[in-house]
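Box 4.2: Ligand-aware structure prediction
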Amino acid sequence: MQVGEFATPKAIFEDYAYFSSQSASWLEHCRQYSEDIIAKFDPKTVLEIASNDGGLLKCFQKAGVTVLGVEPATNVAEASEKIGIPVINEFFDTKVASLLPKQDLIVGNNVLAHVPNLNDFIAGMHLALAPEGIITMEFPYLQNLLKELQFDTIYHEHFSYFSLASVQTAFSRHGLKIFDVDVLPTHGGSLRIYAAHQGTQECTDRLLTLKLQEDTNNLDAFKKFADESQRYKRVFLRRLTDFKDREYLKHRGGASFNPKSVSIVAYGAPAKGNTLLNYCGVSTEFIDYCVDTTPYKQGRFLPGSHIPVYHPDMLKETKPDLVYIQPWNWSDEILQKLEFVRRWGGEFLIRTRYR
Ligand code: JHZ
């Protein structure tokens, strides 16, 4: 499943707003992964493609592994250099790969979907991988996208949405074999694939089982997905409208009525949140403002909806009635952080599938 190149990667990554270390759960995921992969394959060198602000490579560096990042977004690459992670500030491709020493481990988390020229990218990994080296890549799983109605994760940054079958085909064209897979809860359900040069590894049973269970080559599932996405819009708008109108209808005509008296605000400014708000046509008539811990996002506006983004301290100052949590993938971590909202009777709204 692919979409066309509506925005060039150069335009997308010139000045990138996503700093992956903002989530404690993601950092924990990275720590756990580095421990597991070191125990299993004992790499001496690791290359991370799209190393972002360096959170994952830091874990390897602490364990004494030689690390190198490739990251096209200059502002994000600088953040990683500040914590001592060496970075090549480029898009990864065969040209960059041909200049690198061969790597024991190549990692790419949430990058494969962002690559328009997939063939050159995978050929580059083949070039940079040591003869007995391992590649692991994580990406949101198409099966979950369909099952959990994650239409909001479809946006211009993501050119491809992978099933296990499609990623296997793409890798095998370049002499790489996917031999194992983990199913992960991150980003609404992801796959972590393990690949190596053809002929060096045997496929695991869990890979073969998952492949048999996959049901993404089914047009009806996509048609149902489209219908349900439309229903989602209706239900979401109804929920916001009911909440906002509750007090309005109670006080209509009253001299002291303040139309802002029922305030809804958004917590978190994830990329996918903008797909959802823009698709549903939601702007400041519903949501007064948004807060996000990423300093880079504060003081700006959400694209399209023009909702202002502030520091999370704003919540305590304005005591909103409803906090709409946009990054549903981190809702457990965020709900724990926002326990204080309940003190003034504030409620939460989290995106669900709305069956
Ligand atoms: P988050 C990202 O999408 C970016 P996004 C990318 N395009 C991709 O492919 C997918 O991941 C897979 C903030 N936050 O992680 C930080 C808080 O403020 O869901 C982020 O701005 N407080 C590469 O952007 C946003 O929320 C918190 O406590 O949809 C989360 O964005 C936490 C946990 C997060 O990814």
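In the box above, the bound molecule is JHZ. The chain has 13 helices and twelve strands.
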